[in-house]
Amino acid sequence: MDKYVCGQCFDDEFIKDFITENALRKKCSYCGNESEELIAADISKVAEFIEDGLRSEYSDAVECLSWESAEGGWQGTTYHTYELFDEIELGVESEELLTDLNDLLPNIDWCAYDPFALSQGKELIFDWGQFSDQVKHRVRYVFFRLDRQAKGSQTFENVAQPYEVLFRIGDLVKEFGLCKVIAPGESLFRARVHHCEHFSTVADLGPPSKESARYPNRFSPAGIPMFYGAFDIDTAIAEVYDCPNKPKRIASVGRFENMRVLHILDFTNLPSYPSIFNGQTQDERGPLRFLHHFVNDSTRSIKKDGREHIEYVTTQVVTEFFRHILTDGDGNHFDGLLYTSARHEGGICCVIFCSNEDCTQNREPLKSWTVLREATLSLNGKATIHRELP
Do 241 and 339 sit in the same domain of this protein? Predict the structure, then answer.
């Protein structure tokens, strides 16, 4: 087949790299992309590279499954090559390219090497789904007392009891380097939307007090206040303003600084999503695949239609685990989380585990006669801005 394909036809970075290293032509036969440099590799060679990746986790069903005509054929899950492209998320849009790859790859029924067992990543995803369903719809406050034989409970070998999926998550965030430190003096912005008055005090712009935390949020149940903010003003406003059809409003945005070192779990910079073509085994790729799934599930946009109180439960439970149980490699408990904004592209949000009583203004000492502690955040009253919203 005398055709050549460029890296722009694929999403996978490892396939792109292979094409760059083996480029022989200056024009792509599929997308028409042209360059003065060599950019396109022989499609047959690219197909061989893709086959090598597939065979790292999939095999011919003849080698792994039995065939029973009376039972409908292969006794297990199989894939035609086209279906396998979807299963591995090949990320190719060109139908011509998909057809040629399908023709160049072996005409076999593919199946997983171990067709009767979940991969480590899929097993963790399943366990996470089971745990989420459990705390949302079955048992919420004593889930740590249920064993794996409890009625309605299903778990696999990765966890002995349903709640132990939390400890697996804890292991993974440390394994993949998500434990970060924020040095004192970082700017964190928190917005409040209102009609006419201007807010500029920590009482108005800081997190709620324990008595005022009446509503649940993504990471905090009612009654447990936390600081929700962002690293830039636009994201801070976008996170609290979603009613452009209502009368004109004003956003007051306070600039806070952390008064001490903050130990943070950073979910905004996960290692690249694992590719089947990167030479890693499923055991290495599976946990990272799960971690991506966990972060996406925990930070997805949730419609506020009344059911958000249920949907928030799982992330609230996990947050309590991060706050009170998990520690970093030096034994430090975590002070908060960083996550990607679902409302402002490129924005980074934070939730800091503190209430209004843990905040001060203009770096003044905490005014408390009963507790001797250092303030977590301080509002710079002079840096407060007020912005009219559409």
Answer: yes
